Amino acid sequence: MIINRKNLLILSLLSVIVSCTPAAFYDKGKSSLVKRDQNKINQSTPDHSVAYYYYTLGMLLEKKAKYNEAIINYQMAIDSDSSLLQAYARSAKLLLRTGKAAEAMVVANAALTVNSNFIDALNITAGVYSSRGDKINAIKTYRKLVDLNPKAKNTRLLLALAFYKAGKMGKAANTLDSLRKDFPKDILSHHYKGRVFIHEKKWNLAIKEFYDLVKAQPDFTPAQLNLGWLYEVKGSHKKALQVYNRLSKNNPLILHFVERVKKTIAASKEEKKKAGTLLAERPPEDMDINMRFALTYMQLADRTGNIENYNRSLEFLQLYRVHSPDDKQALFYVANVFERLGLFNLAVETWKELAKTDSTKARDMYWKIAEIYEKIGKTEEGLKYAIKAIELGPNEPEIHYFTGVLYNRVNKNYLAEKSLLRAVELKPADEKYFFYLGVVYEKLGKFDECISAMKKAIELKPDHANALNYLGYIYAEQDENLVEAEKYLLAALSLEPNNGYFIDSLGWIYYKQKKHSKALYWVLTAVRHIPPDPTVLEHLGDIYTSLNNPFEAVKAYEGSLKAAEPNGDKQKRNSILKKLNKVRKQSLQ
Asked: What is the mean pLDDT of residues 135-161?
């Protein structure tokens, strides 16, 4: 591709602009879908370079999980060049993923006015039509998609199900047969052919279909449930019991099926007949295809780490929610996928919505919200929800522990101590509670309590490397038990030999033992293992000072100040400055 000077200038701005929120492009007073006059756009002269700029910026924002900003940039790309189909596709998909199916349809239909055969847009409109229960348009659109791409397995399956939902069993069966011919091992096409037979009350054909499927795929639970149910309808209760018993070993929720069959076996002949008639009227509920696809893509993403599979899962989840907006389980999955995609604000809003609709699980929702806020650096906000979680679950030690961690992060260490002591009280055998309690005690200047807590953590978990390091370092800071401190650090390093912070702690112990050359070796080694750290570099400056090397000490102290947070501990910063000024004077003598 040849890039002219104008394009080159535009592209050079991307690295600057993408790091900023495009406030100039985002009108908060409007919907995230930018409204425009389609006829006016079609009549205007396209500006391809500007459209490409906004489209590229949209992709970069999308990768940063800034979906709202990305959508607006895709819309501006469309405003500049109405023929840019991929901008429509990306915009529509992001709208769908964020639960705005109606707006996604608007964008997808706009794309179809540009190109009526645009597959991405047709997929979205077909999915929404189906989820809304618009059977005629769903069938029409899926048929068109199959005509455009006859080998698309999932599209053909969705067409078959559209026929099935519309009660057109013959067409559903023909489409499934065609699909099975091309993909003989496809589980879902066999499964839904069995469901067609059930709908038509062709019990023997349905039994054969599900029997063969269970034989080929014994772990496919829906097929086993259908097979067991069919055996019940046919009066083959012992066979049904065998199927359900196999299932109940791995799934306790199946036990009520087992009990039902046992009661039926013990019933009279007339009661058995009546039970079979009632069963025939109510076939087992089948999972919605969108939910089935959503869970499949989610599991695939969890297994492979492929982010695109999470995106596909989210699209199917949102299509399912068009059909079943009150399904709490679906909302739970949506929140989890938002979090996995780094869409933390959307995840938080979804967890909040769930907490309002399900008071029995509100505690866990608040806890999850607190965790997300902590992850994105909004610790104070996280604390509010952690406290709400404690109010609903005061006897859950992990919540008290997590709250203690959050209090420590915002330097409310007396409250952190209180929360951690409550966690220890509720679960006295968890070493991580004692370790973090020791960290808080050190922050509070309670060194004896810190040492006691760290020793308890090591007692509960002798290979707790961080506790071993912490205990040794505290002894060094207190300038006591230095031989014992060295033993703790050597034990920590035997577990994590390349941990730069442990290496620095050992060097600091040698410094306290006045083994300055040995200390220099270890602290220099630590510097090579970790990014610039203010404490480690201060240690290095102190060691060089003790070795009467003011020139190197100046470099180390300057590095320490540079590595420190500008708004960090002022007292600590002033202490390093005082050392720096002193060695500077020595270096000039």
From this structure: 96
* Residue ranges per structural domain of the chain: 1-115, 531-589
Pairwise CA distance, residues 565 & 334, whole Å: 37
pTM > 0.70: yes or no: yes
153 and 186 Cβ atoms separated by less than 8 Å:
yes
pLDDT, one tens digit per residue, over 268-315 is 888 888 888 888 888 888 889 999 999 999 999 999 989 999 999 999
The DSSP secondary structure of 261-310, one letter per residue, reads HHHHHHS-HHHHHHHHHHHHHSPPP---HHHHHHHHHHHHHHHH--HHHH
Q: How far apart are the first and last CA of the chain?
A: 63
Query: Do 280 and 274 contact (CB within 8 A), yes or no?
Result: no
> Whole-number mean pLDDT of the chain?
89
Reported as half-sphere exposure (CB side, CA atoms, 13 A), residue 541 has a value of 25
pLDDT of residue 589: 61
Contacts of 306 (CB under 8 A, 6+ apart): 300
**Token output for 492:** 């920590």
For 44, the 3-state DSSP assignment is coil
Report the alpha-carbon distance of residue 258 to residue 241 in Å, rounded: 6
Number of H-type helices and E-type strands within the chain:
33, 0
Which two three-digit tokens encode residue 441? 């005690």
| pLDDT band at 38; cut points 50, 70, 90 | very low
| Superfamily of domain 1-115, CATH level 4 | Tetratricopeptide repeat domain (1.25.40.10)
